[in-house]
């Protein structure tokens, strides 16, 4: 495909010294600053990371076809290839948009947490589409990651403590993104229990925090926010959603921690990148 602009190589069996599995993207292209866009997909999550050289990593895709229109704006003109898709966990508001994306885009490989969603017609459809396109479907968890040149994504959770949980939100893939331009912490739909686990085991400091579970009152504890210390927090939620997201309690904790908040329900798609050494936000409603 002429619009790929890169070659990718899935190294699911590449074992590092610490025993972690890694997915590696190899690319050739003009250098540029990294950017991350939190897409306006209504009540759901979808974030697009574009790395120097043009590699594109899409984490989650929202609940429906809204993600397709958001991608048309966020991706470079004419782009029809996404190198890597990450499905944090098999809940509709995180994965179903991929069913619509695959009708218009090619995706090089999928990363999942290894959990199934029995009884979900949409999940079965997505798995069938991935298999029909022969895209690698790679299961990663805590200690694994993704590398691309000087950039990497560390998977912090789920480990054995959470991957088998009856609460699917506990199983979400938590990612710490590290680029020369910024760091970002993507927390899926995890809540206080996973946050405590993360806080005890990792350096969570990040420039950008994707607030857990659309700003649920059971996510983003005061202790977790102190550990992350982000320059900015982004909440992905739908306007006038029936869940009351983001919760007043969560917004109050963010305010008390003096963390600026950007919201897709109010601002539309939010893109963050370094400009002149400063983290800048650009919005499209």
Walk me through what this model shows.
This protein is an alpha/beta fold and 285 residues long. It has one domain (22-284): 4-Layer Sandwich (Metallo-beta-lactamase, Chain A). The chain contains 8 helices and 16 strands. The strands form 2 sheets. Strands 1-8-9-10-11-12-13-14 form an 8-stranded mixed beta sheet. It has an 8-stranded mixed beta sheet with strand order 7-6-5-4-3-2-15-16, covered by helices on one side.
> Please, what is the average pLDDT?
90
Q: Figure out the total of helices.
A: 8
Kindly provide the radius of gyration, computed on alpha-carbon positions and rounded to a whole number of angstroms.
17 Å
Tell me the overall shape: globular
**CATH homologous superfamily - what is it?**
Ribonuclease Z/Hydroxyacylglutathione hydrolase-like
Largest sheet: 8 strands, mixed
Gap from first CA to last CA: 31 Å
Q: What is the subunit organization of this protein?
A: single chain
The tally of structural domains comes to: 1
The percentage helix is 10-25%
> Which percent band covers the strand fraction?
25-35%
CATH class: Alpha Beta
Specify the structural class: alpha/beta
**What is the CATH architecture assignment?**
4-Layer Sandwich
What is the tally of beta strands?
Answer: 16
List segments where confidence is low: pLDDT < 50 over at least 5 consecutive residues.
Answer: 1-19
Strand neighbour order, sheet with most strands: 1-8-9-10-11-12-13-14
Protein name: Metallo-beta-lactamase domain-containing protein
Domain Metallo-beta-lactamase: 43-239
Essential attributes:
ComA-like_MBL, single chain, Competence_DNA_uptake, disordered N terminus, 8 helices, Metallo-beta-lactamase domain-containing protein, 26% strand, RibonucZ/Hydroxyglut_hydro, 285 residues, globular
